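Data availability excerpt. The first of two example chains:
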Amino acid sequence: MGDIVKIVAQNKKAYHEYFVDEKFEAGLELTGTEVKSVRKGAVNLKDAFCRVEDGEMLVFGMHISPYENGNIFNREPMRTRKLLMHKKEIMRLFGQVGQKGYALIPLSVYFRGKWAKMEIGLCRGKKLYDKRDAAAEKSAKREMDRAFKEQNR
């Protein structure tokens, strides 16, 4: 029986802005009050991105609201946080991001058991026409579903 996964925050904008080619799981290095805030769901991934610096995976732009009972222990909400991954994985991602024009985008934050984790996507940017195609496809599917529903009444 696997660990219980509780999703805290998702980055829906990422799926609109990028093609997600591969997904990876990374641990989040957080302080005590940050963990409490994350458990409450006070996380925003909207403008977050990941980068490899000095052989470490870092996440920038992730906002974790200060914990209201944390007083002096609260940290800066927008601080750069370290992600925990195997060195081989980090170096492989570093190579792909450098060569092929990929970006590392946080897709979701969740708890696997008691551990805070982040799902990272190896993403390619969508062009405007790709976004239009995706929107047209979505609306066409919605129309088909609606028609089938009417037909089955």
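And the second chain:
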Amino acid sequence: MKKLGVYIHIPFCVHKCSYCDFYSVTNTLLTEDYFSALKEQILNFKSYLKDWTVDSVYIGGGTPSCVDSKYIVDIMETLKSVVKFVEKPEITIESNPGTLDTKKIKDYLNCGINRLSIGLQSADDEELKMLSRIHDKSAFESAYMLARMLGFKNVNVDIMYALPGQKEETLMNTIDYVTSLDPEHISFYGLRVEEGTPLAAREDLLEKIPDEDAQYNMYIHAAKRLEKAGYSQYEISNFSKKRMMCRHNCRYWKSGDYIGFGPGAASYINGELYSYTKDIQSFILKPTDFFVNIEKSEKLTIRQQATQYVMLGLRLARGVEAKEYKLRFGRDLEEDYGEKLEKYIDMKYAKRTDKGFRLTRAGLLVSNTILSDILDFDKK
């Protein structure tokens, strides 16, 4: 049977962080109705998913840990009644340390969740206040230690860099603090100022964001620091201990099949890419009406699928492989991209490997520029 990843969107947050562009709401009065609709949507896919085996689940948001854990348990039980799981699936839930407690963590473990992602972002309390996070360093540490004590053996910690006013020294202090806790995985994201977010309207903060040279140094030096601490970089923003890469996210970057549930969730199955409208109200009213909830849908041609494979695969440290490219799409990787990548190879932003192509660490940092240059998005 073909393997599938499942994404479940929980759009609720206690408070919207100043930089966040993900779809979320703070109206918790909708919680009961939302989870009822979410269950209905998942159950509606039972016959469609009978030929798939699920090897990863990712419960994201929003802040999944801000809702009563009974809802998460119920959704997991619903999912188990609909799909077949491999023997040892990876099941992740995102969390904010300010919303975790003993009952929630125990409930997560008991319903099969075996990977916890905790959003620290910074170990500096002033930086956390600037980001309008609801936790401080002490709350994070308490949540992390509690999760370990109760049995989580696979934990990810999120860190951000290029924050307004952030110095490299402060960032390194955060990295040293997190690595001292010994999590299995560390996600290391650069701050992006998204249009429409509160941060985008704060000129006083925007002018304090480190310049490109400072961001470059932060990224390169932090990556080296993480590797020295035993974390291998396997994607632009992700580092892990040996064999502890995030299976679900690797599915995205390797153009594997996945299905999403909830408003704003995306799916990619059998070459078709679609996403749901970011509207919790319409979702609650008609959760099984595909045409009410759909935002966009596209059946990708083989050429478009090949383009997507390269676009996502070059995010990975291993890059893209000619043999896999030929096997999946019947095309020659060297013929399609060799000449286009040559100038970036000369600039030390890319490398030709014995298997295909990959970007260097410096290249990963400017991957958006490289990809926009080499990819033919309009070709069918």
